[in-house]
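hey can u check if this looks right to u? its 63 residues, i copy pasted from the old doc so theres a chance i mangled smth
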Amino acid sequence: MKEELDVALAPDGYNVGFNAGEAAGQTVFHAHIHVIPRFEGDVENPVGGVRHAVVGRGHYDAR
């Protein structure tokens, strides 16, 4: 999968993650993995990994 994404999108890096279990923040109980292509400068501060990779979505549980 990585090679295909590298060719299609040419990102500078990736965030890859998943939540396993309620204590880890999983809210939909099925297996899935987040693969998020990242580009230099795509966010001001990339700290926070997968949860904050999409601007404005890091605190989705506060709605």
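The CA atoms of residues 5 and 16 lie 13 Å apart.
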